Amino acid sequence: MTNLHQVSIEIIRQGQADSGGYVASPTFSQYGFSWLRDGTWTAYAMQLVGEHASAAAFYRWAGATLMRYEAEVEALLKKLAAGEALVETDFLPTRFHLDGRMGLDDWPNFQLDGYGTWLWGLVKAVEGGVIDAAGWQALRPAAALTVRYVGALWQFPNYDCWEEHRDHIHPATLSALYGGLMALRSLDPSLVDAVLPAAIRAFVMQQCVAEQGHFMKFLGNSEVDASLLWTAVPYGLVTVTDPVFQATLAKIERDLHVPAGGVYRYAADTYFGGGEWLLLAAWLGWAYVELGRHAEAEQIYHWIENQALPNGEMPEQVATHVLDASYLPYWEARWGTSACPLLWSHAMYLILGSRLQEVRS
Ligand code: BGC
Fold first, then answer.
1. What is d(CA 48, CA 347) in angstroms, rounded to the nearest whole number?
2. What's the pTM?
């Protein structure tokens, strides 16, 4: 039998460029870039499995990449201070070439969640000894720059973590910013004014809870999105036992979790037909671990393993129970078959495995 733990580590290693950036997928036509979001989860997984050098190289790459665009951030802040209207190219992108250059294509780039994610992961890496004191000092300016950037923009509508719905405000994105800023504040209080994460949290609690008591997909849309799991795990905007999280989880289970299967992103998803995402299944499993629902987490872990190809590669999503099959040929004609392997899927599999390992013993 393929050792999926080892194969996952190997696929991630092979997907890391000499620069330190991780490719989102080495084979999928659109994913030959390093995203802050995917990359941070991949680095966190590598940290948990003891591959510290790989994780550290990613954070160094991300830090150097962001510092390369310091002048762009300053220009944006200046425009904001002068009350000038921003245009799409003023924002930093969601993904970079593996050598740190910005892509010049018109990808839906203005997405803030990855900036919170990278702060969160960076702090975990410092706390976990992946980055030593000197390494942290070298990365501190990039963290400070990120705080200024997200601090100025968090109230602006921006694309969600699925790179959609540009004109809305997404609580999952805000929870990533909250989690990143709170983590950074605990490491180095001088970098984050307490007012900022407190304001983000207050906004989410006051504006982003639907009448039914659960977090909403975006402001004005009372559906759920599986990324709302982030509000508690790992970003801690609420605890897993908070009634709003409990109501959100119950709706995700009802609307998005295929019995004994995977997890949809959201009910109206049509990307590659809207299949079950491995990384979201892992997220639900992670939430179950935190809730002490270990048997359900184990079941999900095995479901993920069963979706791997015989050579161990894990896809982004599987098409066994797609929400709208008519969209599959559309996407396949446009971009080829769905991404496989996807490093983020392997990463979340390793993260869930590592959490399960801790609670099994
Ligand atoms: C997903 C993003 C992801 C990107 C690269 C997109 O299809 O919606 O969340 O960051 O792929 O994996």
1. 10
2. 0.98
